[in-house]
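This protein record is not my work; I was only asked to verify it. Would you go through it and say whether the fold makes sense for this chain? Here is the record exactly as it was handed to me.
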Amino acid sequence: MGLTLTAHAVTDRGFFRDRNEDAIAVDSWFSQAEHGVAMTFRMPLARPTVLAVADGVGGQPGGDVASRVALMELIASKERLASAPGISGGVRSIHDRIRSVGRSTGLAGMATTVAGIAVGPGSLRVFNVGDSRVYVAGPDGVLRQESCDDVVRDAFGNPTHVLSQCLGRPGQAPEANISEPGARPAGAGLRAVLCTDGIHSVLDDRVIEKALMERDGLDCVDLLVETAIRRGSRDNYSLIIVEIDE
């Protein structure tokens, strides 16, 4: 019997922003809803697919456009993301595309983060640029952050909110952080959490891990979103929970 991927996904502008500069993608589905409703998707792992979140950089023009361009380009190139070189090249192409769109639309300087997983039969790779995150939990339930926060650190080594790299920013092209988590990268029992900082900035890893252990599917999405709002999230938020089972 083959493996099945189930994804539960939501994005929302939140209560304090004028528009949603976040975006989410699951295979060929895309959303940048102002008031999102959590959706569930199921698909056999018979071909390469991609799931991702993006967060348009605040303080710059067109953050919503940048995140939308990034994920639409990612969807269009998902068949080429089956290898680490394919992901690296795809991320650089998306960076160039965002810059081109920015120049042609009067939104030069628009930028975004991206974090996702490229998954197919027998393989799973995590990638990111910026501070959006991917967590992975194996059959043991232990949650680990697999993405790398691309942020500037202060004189004491503490992370700041300043991004060290993102997609679309003028200057040197970003290098995607890529990892292949676990010895059984796409095995039954694996779960992943993809989220923007509207979620992870107010929820520590233990809260996310506990929710994954105690709730399933949309119930877990609802719990994490409600907890983030209760803890004072003032940003757009995006969340995808991925489950791989037989």
Observations:
- The chain has a mean pLDDT of 93.
- Residues 84-105 form the longest helix (22 residues).
- The two ends are 7 Å apart (CA to CA).
- The first strand starts at residue 4 and ends at 12.
